[in-house]
Design brief:
This protein is an alpha/beta fold. The chain is built from eight helices and eleven strands. The chain has a domain of 179 residues: Rossmann fold. The N and C termini lie far apart (82 Å).
Length: 329
């Protein structure tokens, strides 16, 4: 036994010294794991591939899409409104968005009727004007202002993918726009209730509120290019939460009372009134062309115009509408 210890002992001492020399017993900090590059999520519709992961720790800046080729928007409106004027102002960040506007009611003298470089329309729009545009923007226009053949031509171009359709109704034009036979075939909403009390002599009118009601983004809305504002699903939900709370939160006292959305359409933003959730922003699936219904925002509470935070994110969303409808997203 003594002989074994005499042999093994020096060997163990030598082994320990060698291991110590090579630093085996030193404490090593684990190597830093490199942060993975943002990877696209699995998309469920065109444009959602631009969503990124992982989510950032801070709030990302609003995502204003880059529009590579000029996009012409033909705007038809019943009259001048603060929201449509805001659109024209915020589109300046994307100089490739060109526009012309026709007002059914006489516009104030000196009002700008087209973007720089675009001539104003010489009269009521024709199908030739539609053919020269990539997007048709209906801003609370009464469809009876134009002949049925005009709207049939619009629907054909939307269905064929040659025209994107943006519809922003007010309290008077939501039902007529949704009921126009040709438009009905391409809109993402299938039925809009009339602007009338639910009961004869009653005061409750669908979609009309005594106090401003906040917009609420849906799960689809945090992913869809038209409403996500930032390219992160979780970040989008947080941004919408900030946008719809506080003194300058996005709210409205009216939203077109959409009773039913079209098959395959996705509700992106809602307005909650009592026990009912009214679809406010609704997008088609894109299978038969792209159309976007934007209710409530034409009547957004004036406080929304005061906030720089909200204005920057409204700009990103308005440019995103154009990019998605023009199939650039």
């Amino acid at each position: 036994m003594k002989r074994v210890l005499l042999v093994v002992g020096p060997f163990l001492v030598t082994l320990a010294a060698a291991l110590y020399f090579f630093g085996v017993f030193e404490r090593h900090e684990p190597e830093a794991t490199p942060t993975p590059a943002p990877a696209p999520v699995d998309p469920s519709l065109p444009g959602e591939a631009a969503l990124l992961a992982p989510e950032p720790t801070g709030e990302p800046d609003p995502d204003v899409p880059a529009i590579a080729a000029p996009v012409k928007v033909l705007v038809l409106a019943e009259g001048t409104r603060s929201f449509t004027t805001w659109c024209f102002q915020l589109w300046r960040v994307a100089p490739r968005i060109e526009w012309q506007v026709w007002y059914a009611a006489p516009a104030p003298e000196g009002l700008q009727l087209s973007s720089p470089g675009q001539p104003p329309l010489s009269g009521a729009p024709t199908t030739t004007d539609v053919d020269g545009a990539q997007i048709l923007f209906l801003a609370a226009i009464d469809p009876s202002r134009l002949p049925a053949a005009f709207w049939a031509h619009v629907a054909e171009r939307v269905t064929s993918g040659r025209l994107g359709l943006l519809v922003v109704p007010d309290h008077l034009t939501g039902r007529p726009l949704a009921d126009e036979p040709s438009l009905r075939s391409v809109l993402p909403v299938a039925s809009v209730l009339p602007l009338a009390p639910l009961e004869k002599g009653g005061r409750l009118i669908p979609g009309v509120f005594d106090t401003p009601r906040a917009f609420e983004v849906t799960a689809d809305g945090t992913k869809h290019p038209a409403t996500r504002i930032v390219p992160f699903e979780g970040g989008s939900a947080k941004v919408w939460g900030k946008l719809t709370r506080g003194r300058d939160g996005w709210s409205t006292k009216f939203v077109s009372p959409v009773e039913r959305v079209a098959p395959g359409a996705r509700t992106l933003v809602e307005v909650v009134g009592g026990d009912l959730r009214w679809p406010a922003v609704v997008a088609t699936s894109g299978d038969r062309g792209r159309a976007l219904w934007v209710g409530g925002l034409l009547d957004i509470d004036w406080s929304a115009y005061r906030s720089d935070y909200g204005t920057d994110r409204m700009r990103a969303m308005m440019v995103s509408w154009v990019a998605w409808l023009a199939q650039a997203l």
